[in-house]
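okkk here we go again. third time trying to get the 2-acetamido-2-deoxy-beta-D-glucopyranose bound version out, last two times i messed up the smiles copy paste (missing a bracket lol). double checked this time i swear
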Amino acid sequence: MRPPPALALAGFCLLALPAAAASYFGLTGREVLTPFPGLGTVAAPAQDGAHLKQCDLLKLSRRQKQLCRREPGLAETLRDAAHLGLLECQFQFRDERWNCSLEGRMGLLKRGFKETAFLYAVSSAALTHALARACSAGRMERCTCDDSPGLESRQAWQWGVCGDNLKYSTKFLSNFLGSKKGSKDLRARADAHNTHVGIKAVKSGHKTTCKCHGVSGSCAVRTCWKQLSPFRETGQVLKLCYDSAIKVSSATNEALGRLELWAPARQGSPAQDLAPWSGDLVYMEDSPSFCRPSKFSPGTAGRVCSREASCSSLCCGRGYDTQSRLVAFSCRCQVQWCCYVECQECVEEELVFTCKH
Ligand SMILES: *[C@@H]1O[C@H](CO)[C@@H](O)[C@H](O)[C@H]1NC(C)=O
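finally!!
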């Protein structure tokens, strides 16, 4: 039996994986996940001029803008990525006091909270995912289907199956973000670390899928390709990482003569192993409560909550208002001969709870 996805993913943050070269991420410097103007009203990417214009609309560094101009299809992918990351963040935090609202985003990104860590991770994950998908969907000129060796993937192409190109997307991403490996700034190191957690979360969901071909399931030919899991699963992984994020401080590494992220000792790992594991989200400051409006969030007044599950924590002890409203739904449906279904409309009272001011 397959465990439910959440359980299957639960161990992710506990995996000790080799620390990889992380790089600072910011789609737009310090401004990740901002929805870009004109979403959905894009001119066809095939038109060169339109593509260049889109690159100019994005808030990118000069170097990133150059890369954008050189790669038709990239601007659109960047916007897809920002949108994907934002929606996922809002979904994962729908029942939390901080609900990933855009209001206060800039304040958060300047600090070192758990929420900041999540934002960095979910942005880089979304970009990695969107790029790999754009390659396999043929929306980019410089990349195509996944061609990892040993996967018969070239054969898979003949069957019209195109694997998501994670190899290209991670390579492009590290170039796009630039390396700040040697940075002395602790914040930059934490951001880079969390960025990499996002990329790793996407990698962990890159799985081989196979399909049989042949007369009635004889499987005379089997083709396999690599496919990314739905981004919802990646979001779930990252939310678990957020829940178990590790507070770090800095320590001077005598051997290297520079500041390093320092994680508290944990069970089962050698005492001298002080670096946070590469699967852990790290943060430096305890978060505010997010109960009241502040420069980090609009507060929780007016938030809809569930009386059984979330009202007590979401409303921060201020209590909640109860309103009743009528909702219409289809009911007493009957199949009529022939061939349609006829339903009546029923009305039901529903209670809506919202946090008091
Ligand atoms: C987040 O909460 C604020 C109120 O605190 C609300 O105005 C906003 O619509 C919520 N956003 C989402 C995406 O649920």
